[in-house]
Amino acid sequence: FHKAITSNNARALMKYVTVKDDAVPLTEDTIQPFLDYLNNSEGRSSQFINYLKSQKALEEGGIAEVKQVKEGLLTKWKIELKPVFLQLSTSYKDTELYLQDISYGKTTEDNSVSEIGPLLPGKYNIKVKLSNEYGESEAEKPVQLLEGTIATALTPPAEYITLMSNYPEAKVLKKKKNTK
Question: pTM for this one?
């Protein structure tokens, strides 16, 4: 188990892990953010292994529990990861939401909150992208999803503007074209 973590080997780690929720498939792609989290900081993988060795890992709570799993005639100890959810809020309608460069759809209204999950705990990259007739804008940031539902906000840099004039015959041009 320790070698799978330190070598960042998702395939090897899958032998030791189960997921509490069947809605989360256990694949190399879904477990990679967990590995990224463990290898992101000096000593974090050792702390996690020490946690698993403690009595606390046999109890409910935390991001993982040590469980006995029956495989055929054998009973093995496995690490059961608990799923997490991301609540992502953004300011603009039609903003595309991305997690690990995978699109999770567009917002349907301004100031909306979208829930993404269930996911395995780990370090993820979120991105939002706004494209409309006025241009394109995007923003991204890393986020650690470890327990329960994590709420975060990310809005592409854009602003609403209102143009007013004292002259009724004034024209507003966008890319040298009249907007009327």
Answer: 0.81
